[in-house]
Design goal:
single chain; alpha+beta; two-stranded antiparallel sheet; 2 helices; 4 strands; elongated
Length: 65
């Protein structure tokens, strides 16, 4: 599932929805913002990314329940 897709029209006038970012990436972005807001500067940027995607994966898993 993608969020923020855009409507694209081809040469024949047919419209379709495409693009955007994955819901996982969207959740990870929100998690990263929350982590940085709570902790300030994160000492290890790669750990920050890993932590944000762990939160995103947990959010996606929770949606399936």
């Amino acid at each position: 599932m993608n969020v923020f897709p855009e409507r694209v029209t081809d040469d024949r006038g047919s419209a379709k929805i495409e693009g955007g970012i994955t819901l996982r990436d969207y959740f990870a972005t929100a998690a990263m913002q929350a982590i940085l807001s709570a902790e300030g500067a994160h000492p290890n940027r790669w750990q920050l990314v890993d932590d944000a995607y762990k939160v995103a994966d947990a959010m996606l898993e929770s949606r399936e329940k």
